[in-house]
């Protein structure tokens, strides 16, 4: 028997499942297919509508279930996404993608800290916002929070900027690409998307809207970028231990460093899939189930995007995030064009 807390969490999960089923139904319609609107895109729109309308009327005890879908279900979905890829795909992306990721991560974090200093922004908020924009969104913010022991409200501010600009990218990139405003090949567009869009979920959504050729490369490039979270956190932890990056307002106790194990498992699944041991029908079934899981994650992400997120971000963190976004969009495009 489930206790009251577990039952409430289950209600939150079932709510996201219901929204995702609606997104799947709409995504299967002819008009949606004709304009390449995936269930994931529809899911986040449904989630955003819910966040700004009905959410205040539903029990707060359901929130953990929604959060579970946005975090845990997303990780499972990304791991299973590996069944769509092979090591041959990874090899095709090659060293240029790794180099692009390294440039984007380093310039974004270092540049963000410098801009934050110019804006006289809180050091912890500047670091959290920069790492979130540079690596993998909320996961990077939460990992860095553990390394510097930041106050919860600072983490919330940084995550809000990730949600805002990551969601913007998910809609903007496909529009720019499909209308020919970005003169990039599918491979270059995939590298640009994977190396510059904030959240893994946003990369999946944007890539899916631009087609398989873009999506596969974008996911691989993004996961390489996610793996860079580990060395970045080690560096941040070292500086925090020296008292150069810690949060002066926070207590001395520190949380452990968050390692993105889902990225490791994602690569292991790609390796297994490269052996071609599963039939096409089984892989198709896994891929359909995976799409549904990712739709759940996107819907839950949308359910966290309320107007309050914009208010919490404030002027300076929002300005920093906007400047970093301009760099990611413009710089990422120029780097992708140069490949």
From TrEMBL:
Compartment(s): Cell membrane
Per the record, the domain of life is Bacteria
Q: TM spans, by residue?
A: 7-26, 32-50, 62-83, 95-116, 125-144, 156-176, 219-239, 259-278, 318-336
Pfam families linked: Cons_hypoth698
According to its record, what are the GO cellular component terms? plasma membrane
Q: Does the keyword Cell membrane apply?
A: yes
What membrane topology does the annotation report for this chain? Multi-pass membrane protein
Main localization category: membrane
Instruction: Give UniProt keywords alphabetically.
Output: Cell membrane, Membrane, Transmembrane, Transmembrane helix
Sequence similarity: Belongs to the UPF0324 family.
Q: Which NCBIfam families match?
A: YeiH family putative sulfate export transporter (TIGR00698)
Q: What is this protein called?
A: Putative integral membrane protein (TIGR00698 family)
Q: Which organism is it from?
A: Hoylesella shahii DSM 15611 = JCM 12083
């Amino acid at each position: 028997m489930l206790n009251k807390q577990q039952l409430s969490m289950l209600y939150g999960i079932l709510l996201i499942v219901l929204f995702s089923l609606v997104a799947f139904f709409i995504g299967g319609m002819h008009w949606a297919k004709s304009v390449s609107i995936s269930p994931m895109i529809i899911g986040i729109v449904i989630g955003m509508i819910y966040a700004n309308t009905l959410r205040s009327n539903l029990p707060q005890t359901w929130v953990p279930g929604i959060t579970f879908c946005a975090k845990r279900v997303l990780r499972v979905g990304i791991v299973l996404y590996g069944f769509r890829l092979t090591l041959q795909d990874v090899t095709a992306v090659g060293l240029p993608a790794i180099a692009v990721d390294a440039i984007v991560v380093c310039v974004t974090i270092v540049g963000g800290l410098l801009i934050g200093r110019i804006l006289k922004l809180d050091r912890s908020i500047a670091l959290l916002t920069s790492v979130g924009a540079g690596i993998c969104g909320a996961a990077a913010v939460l990992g860095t929070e553990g390394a510097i022991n930041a106050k919860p409200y600072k983490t919330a501010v940084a995550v809000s900027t990730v949600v805002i600009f990551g969601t913007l990218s998910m809609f903007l990139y496909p529009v720019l690409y499909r209308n020919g405003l970005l003169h990039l090949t599918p491979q270059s567009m995939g590298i640009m998307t994977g190396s510059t869009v904030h959240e893994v979920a946003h990369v999946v959504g944007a890539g899916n809207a631009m087609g398989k050729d873009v999506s596969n490369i974008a996911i691989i490039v993004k996961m390489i970028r996610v793996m860079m979270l580990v060395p970045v956190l080690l560096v941040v932890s070292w500086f925090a231990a020296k008292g150069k990056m810690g949060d002066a307002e926070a207590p001395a106790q520190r949380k452990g460093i968050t390692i993105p194990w889902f990225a490791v498992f994602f690569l292991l699944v790609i390796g297994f899939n490269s052996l071609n041991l599963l039939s096409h029908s089984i892989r198709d079934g896994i891929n359909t189930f995976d799409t549904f899981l990712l739709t759940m994650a996107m819907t839950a992400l949308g359910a966290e995007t309320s107007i309050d997120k914009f208010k919490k971000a404030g002027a300076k963190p929002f300005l920093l995030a906007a400047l970093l976004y301009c760099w990611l969009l413009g710089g990422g495009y120029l780097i992708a064009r140069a490949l």
